[in-house]
Automatic annotation (TrEMBL):
<feature type="transmembrane region" description="Helical">
    <location>
        <begin position="89"/>
        <end position="115"/>
    </location>
</feature>
<keyword id="KW-0472">Membrane</keyword>
<dbReference type="GO" id="GO:0005886">
    <property type="term" value="C:plasma membrane"/>
</dbReference>
<feature type="transmembrane region" description="Helical">
    <location>
        <begin position="215"/>
        <end position="235"/>
    </location>
</feature>
<dbReference type="GO" id="GO:0015250">
    <property type="term" value="F:water channel activity"/>
</dbReference>
<feature type="region of interest" description="Disordered">
    <location>
        <begin position="261"/>
        <end position="284"/>
    </location>
</feature>
<feature type="transmembrane region" description="Helical">
    <location>
        <begin position="49"/>
        <end position="68"/>
    </location>
</feature>
<dbReference type="Pfam" id="PF00230">
    <property type="entry name" value="MIP"/>
</dbReference>
<protein>
    <submittedName>
        <fullName>Aquaporin-8</fullName>
    </submittedName>
</protein>
<keyword id="KW-1133">Transmembrane helix</keyword>
<dbReference type="InterPro" id="IPR022357">
    <property type="entry name" value="MIP_CS"/>
</dbReference>
<dbReference type="InterPro" id="IPR023271">
    <property type="entry name" value="Aquaporin-like"/>
</dbReference>
<dbReference type="InterPro" id="IPR000425">
    <property type="entry name" value="MIP"/>
</dbReference>
<keyword id="KW-0813">Transport</keyword>
<feature type="transmembrane region" description="Helical">
    <location>
        <begin position="21"/>
        <end position="43"/>
    </location>
</feature>
<keyword id="KW-0812">Transmembrane</keyword>
<comment type="similarity">
    <text>Belongs to the MIP/aquaporin (TC 1.A.8) family.</text>
</comment>
Length: 284
């Protein structure tokens, strides 16, 4: 790996050490999630689902366009989980992303708490997600909504056969449509970081308790991410007929891969292509 990094650095002029490979993407996820939660929570003041949905969706689209080539533009633990299970990033990087996203959500929500007066802040419950329907159905709704979002990411930004330059807008539209459709029932979180940050920032002051049903916004998005990854790997992906080619040990995608240089991804050899024990014994 060190030799490959050295070769790529010579060809591209980029520093491909740990900072560019790990630290920079994680910081991008932190910054992006902070900005997303800040705008998202502020938009709740409008009280109009169309405005709230568009604010969330357009913000995600803009952040993906700006930061996507650095980190992949997840800004959502459910998206990171889905991409990891689909073979896009390493488990270690996924954990780092999720930690950065949760911290970013807390900071973004804290910024909103700092700039809004108490009356305005309490009127929107600090932007926290609180379901208005039975918790079980809210979990089910979040699973479906998150499946739509994560599939939009996988099919528009990950899958070789269908990925396209309009991915930021497709993903943003998925967020906006989900919020317009279910914002008044489940809250349409799809994003544990978006729910956790406001719950922490407003837990002491907002009128409603944000923790009683907070699990909805972890269980639902996680379930949706897993469902989307399964659909992708076994049904929708260009490799769906041979899912053994997938691996969750892929190296992080780096910007210089787009310049025609050798990709740093590792690939799992399909089982039917691997040498048999009998073949390897010939060389012993």
């Amino acid at each position: 790996m060190a030799e490959l990094d050295s070769l790529l650095q010579q060809k591209s002029g980029y520093d491909v050490g740990p900072f560019r490979t790990y630290v920079r993407p994680v910081l991008a996820e932190f910054v992006g999630t902070t900005l997303f939660v800040f705008i998202g929570v502020l938009s709740v003041q409008s009280g109009n689902l169309a405005s709230i949905g568009l604010a969330h969706g357009l913000t995600i689209a803009l952040l993906i366009m700006g930061l996507g080539k650095i980190s992949g533009g997840h800004f959502n633990p459910a998206v990171s989980l889905g991409v990891c299970l689909s073979g896009g990033i390493t488990v270690v990087l996924t954990v780092a992303y999720i930690v950065a996203q949760i911290l970013g959500g807390m900071i973004g929500a804290a910024f909103v708490r700092a700039i809004l007066e108490d009356k305005m802040y309490n009127a929107i419950d600090g932007g926290a997600h609180i379901p208005s329907i039975d918790a079980g159905w809210a979990v089910f709704g979040e699973i479906i909504l998150t499946t739509i979002l994560v599939l939009s990411v996988l099919m528009n930004a990950v899958n070789d056969e269908t990925k396209n330059e309009f991915a930021p807008f497709a993903i943003g539209f998925a967020v906006a449509v989900d919020i317009m459709a279910a914002g008044s029932t489940t809250g349409a979180s799809m994003n544990p970081a978006r729910s956790f940050g406001p719950a922490v920032a407003g837990s002491v002051v907002i009128p409603q308790d944000p923790w009683s049903y907070h699990y909805v916004y972890w269980v639902g998005p996680a379930g949706g991410a897993v469902l989307a990854a399964l659909l992708y790997r076994f049904v929708l992906s260009s490799n769906a007929q041979n899912p053994s080619v997938f691996s969750i040990s892929c190296k992080p995608i780096r910007p210089y891969d787009e310049q025609g240089l050798e990709s740093t991804k590792t690939h799992t050899v399909p089982a039917d292509k691997q040498p048999s024990l009998k073949m390897t014994e010939q060389f012993n």
